[in-house]
Structure formats: C-alpha cells, structure tokens
C-alpha cells in the first residue's frame, strides 16, 4: 500500500521561484490566513528580512523551490542554516504541472510560484539535501564536469559521423557501427609523420 505524504494543514507554505537577481516568493499561511507575495533580492540583507518574517509566523514553515542553475544555492543554504524545512521541486514536474494547470507552456515568475505552491500542497516535492551541508559538494561538481566532458565528446563524435565522414568518406559508414570504430577514429586522426625535417 502506498504511504500518503500530504502536507499537514497547520503549516505555512512558501513557494520560491528562483531567478538571478530577484526571487518571487508566495507565502500561504494556514487558513483563514491570506496569501502574500514578496519579492526578495538575491542578497543577504533580503534573506535576513525574509527569514525574520517567516520566523515571526505562528506556525511551522515549509519552503519549496526549483533548482535554477546555481542561483538557488545561496538562499537554500541560508534558509537551511536558519532551521527551515526545504523541499526541491523537480524542473520537469514544475513544467508539466504548469502546462496542466494553465493550459499553456508560457511561463513567468508569479505563475511558477503558484505552481510550486500547488506542488507543495499536494506533497509532490523532494527533500532538499544541501551539498555543502552534507559534504558532497566536490563529488557533485566532479559529476557535473564529467557530464559536460561526456556531452562534448558525444557531440564531437556525432559531428564527425554525420558531417565529416558522410561528406568525405561515405564508404566508412559500415565500419563505424562495427567493433573497429575506435580503431577507425584512431586511424583517421593519427598524427602523420612529417615529410620534411
């Protein structure tokens, strides 16, 4: 049987749409409270103001956000250090829910904050594990670097196969799919001996 993971009713939900310079924050207190929208600059002073406001509320706080580049990391680290419970909203879940709720692929920051709030209410979020706090920052950065190197390698291989080989050596195509493909690339790009001293 599936365990339900719904968000408790007596909690203030905070949806943060992350951006480079300013974050759109949508705060939903427990009923009968009214929803409030705040814009937070990406600096420590505004972070402290937001944390002070949230700590002054008379309920526990659950904060959800979508990881956007590296712009979410300072705010997430700051809020985690101040004892707030954080949830990560997967990018794909946010995009699909936005399309379903608004019947449009169009996105803007206030709309994204509403969708994040909806996903928090329904419990469709992941627990945020800060890489700095958990000591996995270096491993994460190495993993990202490995991904970029692999992506570049595949991109170069596809460029060679689909453009260079197809244009200049179309007869090579049958060898590319064989076990000798690595040998073929080494042969094609082997450094030729210099004829002149």
Polypeptide structure, described:
The chain is an alpha/beta fold. It folds into 2 domains: 123 residues, Nucleotidyltransferase, domain 5 (2-Layer Sandwich), CATH 3.30.420.10; 50 residues, no CATH class. Helix content is 47%, strand content 16%. The protein contains 7 helices and 6 strands. Strands 3-2-1-4-5-6 form a 6-stranded mixed sheet, with helices on both faces. Helix 2 links the parallel strand 4 and strand 5. Helix 3 crosses helix 4. It is elongated, with a radius of gyration of 25 Å. The model has no long low-confidence stretch (mean pLDDT 84).
Q: What is the ordering of alpha helices and beta strands?
A: EEEHEHEHHEHHH
Number of helices: 7
Spatial separation of the terminal alpha carbons: 77 Å
- Major sheet description: 6 strands, mixed
- Strand percentage lies at 15-25%
CATH class wording of the largest domain: Alpha Beta
Shape: elongated
- Total separate domains: 2
Number of strands: 6
Instruction: Please identify which CATH superfamily of the largest domain we are dealing with.
Output: Ribonuclease H-like superfamily/Ribonuclease H
Task: Spell out the blueprint of helices and strands.
Elements: E1 11-17, E2 22-28, E3 36-41, H1 44-55, E4 60-65, H2 72-81, E5 85-88, H3 91-102, H4 109-122, E6 126-127, H5 137-168, H6 173-176, H7 181-188
Helix pairs in contact: 3-4
